[in-house]
Amino acid sequence: MNRAPRILVFDSGLGGLTVFRALAAQRPDADYVYAADDLGFPYGLKSEEDVKALVLSAVERLIADHAPDCVVIACNTASTLVLPLLRARWPEIPFVGTVPAIKPAAELSQSRLISVLATPGTVARDYTRDLIEKFASACEVALVGSTHLAELAEAYMQGESVADDAIAREIAPCFASHDGRRTDAVVLACTHYPLLQDFFTRLAPWPVRWIDPAPAIARRADQVLSDRFPAHAVRDAGFTFVFTSGAAPAPRLLKTIDILRQKIAREPRARASG
Ligand code: DGL
């Protein structure tokens, strides 16, 4: 097709911007609609039934309004629950999800002690437990459900100051040490968390690999699009930001998003343009 693909990137809040960042580096020629379900945030503390209902109704409206060629559910809490429902409801649209990167963590861990840092919803999912059973049976896996990190990340993106203590408390349970071994890999299984990466690196009791699956998600989205939409010459990606409440994003948030987009534009291209 001889036009830019339109990619809808959906999250409960601003965390999906970490996935958008990787997508825009992979497909700078696409048009992006970023949607934050501020009406439903936070998903991580809600029941499975509530999350399903919120995502289905928000996505329904967004598809009607923006007619995307691909939808990226940039939220682990939603993806571990609703992908089959979304695919059944809109079989003509490819959906790409975000699920905990347990396989790569298990593969690169030397100590065989890994942690999955996620929302309480994601750590409770059967989907997450199945991934551990399938890919990390040789590891001891700590499932760490954080009640505050997603909100702290939202505050940080809105330009508020965030206390080191508050973050250190949330990540502390990820660090285990026994029998001369200690945790060496932590899966960032909530898309909000890479927004706080600098804090994590600085506040960790010892260095670990923090695993952010965003680049892999971006490659997957590119794969599902590339038959119909081969990559075109690089141009300024279109970008629309939507809150499901209809609220306008605050100027400070727009500024943060602008800085993020400028950084992406300066990064070396993930692929040759043509
Ligand atoms: N960004 C979402 C995720 O990846 C969760 C944040 C929330 O609790 O709504 O899980």
UniProtKB/TrEMBL annotation:
<dbReference type="InterPro" id="IPR018187">
    <property type="entry name" value="Asp/Glu_racemase_AS_1"/>
</dbReference>
<feature type="active site" description="Proton donor/acceptor">
    <location>
        <position position="190"/>
    </location>
</feature>
<keyword id="KW-0133">Cell shape</keyword>
<dbReference type="Pfam" id="PF01177">
    <property type="entry name" value="Asp_Glu_race"/>
</dbReference>
<dbReference type="InterPro" id="IPR033134">
    <property type="entry name" value="Asp/Glu_racemase_AS_2"/>
</dbReference>
<feature type="binding site">
    <location>
        <begin position="76"/>
        <end position="77"/>
    </location>
    <ligand>
        <name>substrate</name>
    </ligand>
</feature>
<dbReference type="InterPro" id="IPR001920">
    <property type="entry name" value="Asp/Glu_race"/>
</dbReference>
<keyword id="KW-0413">Isomerase</keyword>
<comment type="function">
    <text>Provides the (R)-glutamate required for cell wall biosynthesis.</text>
</comment>
<comment type="pathway">
    <text>Cell wall biogenesis; peptidoglycan biosynthesis.</text>
</comment>
<feature type="active site" description="Proton donor/acceptor">
    <location>
        <position position="75"/>
    </location>
</feature>
<feature type="binding site">
    <location>
        <begin position="191"/>
        <end position="192"/>
    </location>
    <ligand>
        <name>substrate</name>
    </ligand>
</feature>
<dbReference type="InterPro" id="IPR015942">
    <property type="entry name" value="Asp/Glu/hydantoin_racemase"/>
</dbReference>
<keyword id="KW-0961">Cell wall biogenesis/degradation</keyword>
<dbReference type="InterPro" id="IPR004391">
    <property type="entry name" value="Glu_race"/>
</dbReference>
<dbReference type="GO" id="GO:0008881">
    <property type="term" value="F:glutamate racemase activity"/>
</dbReference>
<feature type="binding site">
    <location>
        <begin position="43"/>
        <end position="44"/>
    </location>
    <ligand>
        <name>substrate</name>
    </ligand>
</feature>
<feature type="binding site">
    <location>
        <begin position="11"/>
        <end position="12"/>
    </location>
    <ligand>
        <name>substrate</name>
    </ligand>
</feature>
<protein>
    <recommendedName>
        <fullName>Glutamate racemase</fullName>
        <ecNumber>5.1.1.3</ecNumber>
    </recommendedName>
</protein>
<comment type="similarity">
    <text>Belongs to the aspartate/glutamate racemases family.</text>
</comment>
<keyword id="KW-0573">Peptidoglycan synthesis</keyword>
